[in-house]
Amino acid sequence: MAVTEMTDTLDTVKTAPESGYTTSDGPPPNYFRIDFLLRLLLLVSAVISLVVLVTSKESEVIAVLPQPFGAIIRDAKFNYSPAFIYLVVALGVASLYSIKTMIFSCAVMSRPAPSAKILFGLIIFDILMAAIMASAVGTAGGIGYLGLKGNSHTNWVKFCDIYGKFCRHVAASIILSLFASIILVLLVVLSAYSLYKRSN
Amino acid sequence: MAVTEMTDTLDTVKTAPESGYTTSDGPPPNYFRIDFLLRLLLLVSAVISLVVLVTSKESEVIAVLPQPFGAIIRDAKFNYSPAFIYLVVALGVASLYSIKTMIFSCAVMSRPAPSAKILFGLIIFDILMAAIMASAVGTAGGIGYLGLKGNSHTNWVKFCDIYGKFCRHVAASIILSLFASIILVLLVVLSAYSLYKRSN
């Protein structure tokens, strides 16, 4: 009998101006177009950052005493430091995550009003991803800064004066990763705003 | 089952007073009691972490060649490393932030249904604080790990075998800061859940 009838009535009641929504302009807004664009930006920045970091290898001839015989070739590679390995892993996870959620975002985009459950779920995953990325940027940033400035108290010498190309790659990668972290924070804010608009 | 459920919802919507809520069980839930407790935990962990980090100073007699004349006293202090200074600043900001929002949370606790705007505002500030704390934990963790393990590729020697007390303090502080970051993430999830419950 009346299942469809009832659903229809329910829909009518729900979309009627005097019902649940205090705003009169129909269903709650769907911000999944902006969501999709932000996730695309996240993917692009994470992938570029990953490539820049992985291709940062640099070989330099280091003079060693006694001269003129002492000279060795030493590399600088991202995987010599656990901090940069952590950033590479975080960027890889963020890239895969952005692809997965982009597909999801694309599927939800056309719906008139995606369920609040979806938005809540996205907030949880986005904030976890944002926290991981922020900590990875912090870790790599700390080691990168040490490479640039050194630390006289612990006798940790800087290496950026020798490995210029490596440091430029690392710096570019960290800036792009920071950008990716900011996008993840914005994604949480966007989903929260969408929920906020629905609860008005 | 579905039909009765639907009828119930329909009845509720039909008979609900013109309050704007579509659910039958009165005003949306108020989770500010949990919010307050989480902020109290945040304050406690941030303050303890701050005190542990600031009191980490250790002086050690270091033998220097040529022996037996060479012996100097060298300190290990948190402010010798920009990473630990960053963590101290982040913890200080988090402590002040938790006090401010605790007062706010306390004021809102008694209201039957705090406005969605308040929850959205809290999400924005909480996620910014969470990102700052996560990056600070990452930075300090990276430097702490370097102190523990060293890095043979860059000739950065570990110092935790000499400055044991300093390293224990730093490790305890980092673990507590990580705990504080997790609480901040939980606070965002709680506010988002509250918004989600309201939008149902």
Automatic annotation (TrEMBL), chains A, B:
GO cellular component: plasma membrane
Origin: domain of life: Eukaryota
Alphabetical UniProt keywords: Cell membrane, Membrane, Transmembrane, Transmembrane helix
Keyword field contains Repeat: no
Residue ranges with Polar residues bias: 1-12
Keyword Endoplasmic reticulum attached: no
One Pfam family matching this protein: CASP_dom
Topology relative to the membrane: Multi-pass membrane protein
Subcellular location: Cell membrane
Chief localization: membrane
InterPro entries associated with the record: CASP/CASPL, CASP_dom, CASPL
Region of interest (Disordered), ranges: 1-24
Domain Casparian strip membrane protein: residue ranges: 34-182
NCBIfam families given in the database record: A_tha_TIGR01569
Quaternary data: Homodimer and heterodimers.
Homology family: Belongs to the Casparian strip membrane proteins (CASP) family.
Name of the protein this chain belongs to: CASP-like protein
Organism listed in the record: Rhynchospora pubera
